[in-house]
């Protein structure tokens, strides 16, 4: 598979900005399913809406060319009556919006005038012709912390959601299907909310682009509603081709090939490069709207009426058979894999960069910087000021000896200006200004000259590997912001003749000068042994298994408008098509292992959905069930959690750090510092709990002079001390006289642990056992569940400080 970077992505790289790339723009089809998306108001001209900041109660002006059936006052009455808007809310902004398709809406924005809730607000959108509520959202300041027990259960919230849908959309309700509630994995931070998705069904077939989503908070209050409902015609399913014909046509359209790809299995396991089968995307049209937005469908997609493969605009195309890209020099040298380490010095790395980049002798070296992350390669970064005033930046991987990145500031800025001129219509699509160039200026480079420049640069950078490196032109996305020339090229390295997706880069050429403006190369698996391609199952067998794992389903899809490619151009309107396509869960990133011949999960396994078998009579059952739902504790294949089993130090610390949402505070440099070397000496680097244990030390939850024993049972005393520091009560640990612990065995508690044990009791973390604290006793899973859930409650009450506990190691 060739991972192509479009011109939009290239511009992001050029400017160092966070602009949305074409891939990210289209990827919303997976990650923004109906249950999670927020309806966006229709985009209109400025004359159609009130400017932000108008005084409260200002009247919106309507476009005389688009006369809505309802007035703004009608919309206000509908919203205020339907949702019983409190009298303490004042209408601050109101607007009328319309678009060329005929959709007309009113948007109303209310703010609270109650001093007790100054940040409360309500936003509602109403169809200006029918009065239908398109969207509603209300925030509730002051109720944004985690609480337990939850006042409203999922079942209660579901009934509330159904009642709202029946009230707001009585005509739609009969055509809606309630989807299973999506789990809410993650830490015990913030309030619990339940988002329910009601998908539209037409002729018994799902139309995932339409439906209703309702969010209910933990207090049973309506947080948001979003309704999407198209009036477009739906094709007759009686005219669709059959499943057998669809499978045959899909098999022909499905183009897969071998590739090396690094796979993360989750659960703390390290990444490993696998031999996988991936889909070829080269035979597809490339548009920014390349995906069916908000529709969980995988390509290719068959029009169920014609049997043709279609893109997201509904246009038919024929997928081209996959062809392995050719290297720069098919007979050139090939570096043996894994690459050998060279461990260059600064002088060697600098000399290499100057040679590869042809840095002139008059250039002035401005900065030199060395970086070496934990367990990573050594990188030398250089910056030169050239005689022409431009600045060149370059970084070299000194461990393996190759150029990581390069940029020329003058060329990058010039390219950005050129793109802006083209977008404004002040420059032609050929990369030059519209006016004839002076005779003294050379003509802009041709497409072949641009390709030659990119190839020559890559040939020089990979002089010892030209037989295994390809330069692949990136597609030019339709639109008025490009030059019409392909100036971006993917650099792809092959291993055993197969694309290695972890050895890939990008080179950009300035369309005006024909010079390379910037370059980067990413490596993630150097030094790693790769699976032998001879172990892979045959492609035909892989396709058969692929289709069995992702069977085709009949589904209605809404097409995207075709992009406007030039000023004054037109775009085709969306339509509904009936399609045969494989459906997959939002966020699914499973890979097809070519050696095993099966799909495998790349993330945390799906949460256990069945009944837990060993919670009968367990007082901590509600806490355990919550932690299972949040994917914080595992359930074995038989449905058992083993609540009476003693937890180890490692298991307890991992649970606490994850539950409080602090696992992302891991600092690999600090973890491998001399300050923690002794403390973590007994913790295997590959342990699933390694990062969390390091975080506990980094945040000061465990003193740095304590050597961690990961496999020993955690005692109530040790757990109490960690909890006290995690909850910001460390100052109290020095004042045991201020605390009282009414336990019969208080004399057996070490003096330096008394305050922590007393706090654990007072906060409800560790209740007494038969009137004893039992300081050296074990902490069972049930005990830990109660302690951790209650700790999350206390953490929320204390404000959930972003820097919990002392930080003695790094301030």
Automatic annotation (TrEMBL):
KW Signal (keyword) present: yes
InterPro entries: SLH_dom, YcdB/YcdC_rep_domain
Residue ranges annotated for the SLH domain, each copy included: 676-737, 740-802
Keywords on record: Signal
Keyword Signal assigned: yes
Endpoints of the signal sequence: 1-26
Protein name per Swiss-Prot or TrEMBL: SLH domain-containing protein
């Amino acid at each position: 598979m060739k991972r192509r970077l479009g011109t939009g992505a290239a511009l992001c790289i050029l400017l160092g900005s966070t602009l949305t790339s074409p891939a990210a723009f289209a990827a919303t089809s997976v990650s923004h399913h109906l249950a999670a998306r927020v309806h966006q108001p229709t985009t209109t001209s400025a004359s159609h809406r009130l400017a932000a900041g108008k005084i409260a109660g200002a009247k919106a002006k309507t476009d005389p060319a688009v006369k809505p059936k309802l007035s703004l006052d009608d919309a206000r009455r509908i919203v205020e009556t339907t949702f019983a808007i409190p009298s303490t809310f004042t209408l601050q902004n109101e607007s009328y919006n319309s678009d060329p398709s005929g959709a007309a809406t009113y948007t109303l924005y209310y703010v609270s005038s109650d001093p007790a809730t100054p940040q409360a607000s309500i936003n509602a959108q109403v169809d200006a012709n029918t009065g239908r509520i398109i969207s509603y959202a209300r925030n509730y300041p002051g109720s944004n912390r985690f609480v337990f027990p939850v006042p409203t259960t999922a079942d209660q919230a579901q009934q509330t959601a159904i009642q709202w849908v029946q009230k707001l959309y009585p005509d739609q309700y009969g055509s809606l299907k309630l989807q299973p509630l999506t789990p809410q994995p993650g830490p015990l931070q913030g309030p619990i909310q339940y988002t329910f998705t009601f998908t539209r069904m037409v002729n018994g077939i799902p139309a995932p682009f339409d439906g209703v989503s309702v969010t209910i908070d933990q207090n049973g209050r309506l947080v948001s509603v979003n309704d999407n409902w198209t009036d477009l015609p739906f094709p007759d399913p009686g005219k669709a081709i059959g499943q057998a014909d669809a499978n045959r046509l899909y098999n022909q359209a499905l183009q897969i090939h071998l590739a090396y790809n690094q796979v993360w299995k989750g659960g703390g396991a390290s990444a490993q490069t696998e031999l996988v089968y991936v889909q070829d995307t080269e035979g597809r049209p490339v548009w920014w709207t390349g995906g069916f937005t908000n529709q969980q469908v995988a390509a290719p997609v068959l029009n169920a009426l014609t049997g043709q493969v279609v893109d997201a605009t509904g246009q038919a195309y024929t997928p081209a058979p996959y062809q392995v890209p050719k290297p720069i020099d098919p007979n050139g040298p090939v570096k043996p894999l894994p690459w050998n380490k060279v461990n260059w010095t600064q002088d060697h790395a600098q000399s290499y960069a100057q040679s590869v980049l042809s840095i002139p002798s008059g250039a002035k070296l401005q900065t030199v910087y060395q970086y070496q992350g934990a367990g990573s390669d050594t990188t030398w970064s250089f910056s030169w000021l050239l005689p022409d005033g431009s600045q060149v930046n370059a970084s070299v991987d000194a461990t393996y000896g190759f150029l990581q990145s390069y940029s020329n500031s003058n060329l990058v800025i010039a390219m950005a200006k050129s793109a802006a001129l083209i977008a404004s219509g002040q420059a032609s699509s050929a990369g030059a200004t519209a006016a004839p160039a002076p005779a003294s200026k050379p003509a802009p480079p041709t497409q072949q000259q641009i390709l030659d420049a990119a190839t020559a640069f890559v040939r020089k950078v990979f002089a010892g590997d030209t037989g295994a490196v390809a330069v692949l032109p990136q597609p030019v996305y339709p639109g008025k912001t490009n030059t019409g020339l392909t100036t971006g090229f993917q650099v792809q390295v092959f291993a055993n003749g197969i694309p290695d997706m972890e050895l890939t880069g990008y080179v950009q050429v300035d369309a005006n000068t024909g010079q390379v403006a910037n370059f980067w190369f990413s490596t993630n698996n150097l030094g790693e042994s790769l699976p032998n391609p001879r172990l892979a199952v045959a492609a035909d067998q892989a396709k058969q298994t692929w289709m069995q794992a992702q069977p085709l389903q009949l589904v209605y899809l809404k097409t995207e408008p075709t992009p406007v490619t030039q000023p004054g151009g037109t775009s085709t309107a969306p339509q509904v098509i009936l399609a045969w396509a494989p459906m997959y869960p939002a966020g699914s990133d499973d890979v097809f292992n070519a050696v095993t011949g099966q799909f495998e999960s790349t993330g945390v396994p799906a949460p256990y959905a069945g009944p837990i078998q060993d919670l009968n009579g367990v007082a901590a059952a509600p806490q355990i069930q919550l932690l299972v739902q949040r994917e914080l504790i595992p359930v074995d294949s038989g449905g058992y959690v083993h609540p009476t089993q003693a937890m180890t130090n490692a298991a307890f610390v991992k649970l606490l750090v994850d539950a409080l949402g602090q696992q992302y505070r891991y600092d690999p440099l600090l973890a491998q510092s001399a300050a923690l070397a002794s403390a973590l000496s007994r913790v295997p680097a590959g342990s699933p709990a390694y990062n969390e244990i390091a975080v506990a030390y980094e945040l000061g939850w465990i003193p740095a002079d304590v050597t961690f024993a990961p496999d020993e049972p955690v005692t109530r005393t040790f757990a109490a001390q960690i909890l006290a520091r995690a909850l910001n009560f460390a100052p109290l640990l020095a004042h045991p006289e201020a605390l009282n612990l009414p336990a019969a065995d208080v004399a057996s508690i070490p003096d330096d642990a008394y305050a922590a044990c007393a706090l654990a009791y007072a906060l409800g973390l560790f209740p007494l056992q038969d009137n004893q604290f039992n300081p050296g006793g074990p902490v069972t899973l049930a005990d830990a569940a109660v302690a951790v859930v209650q700790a999350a409650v206390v953490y929320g009450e204390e404000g959930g400080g972003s820097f919990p506990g002392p930080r003695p190691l790094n301030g």
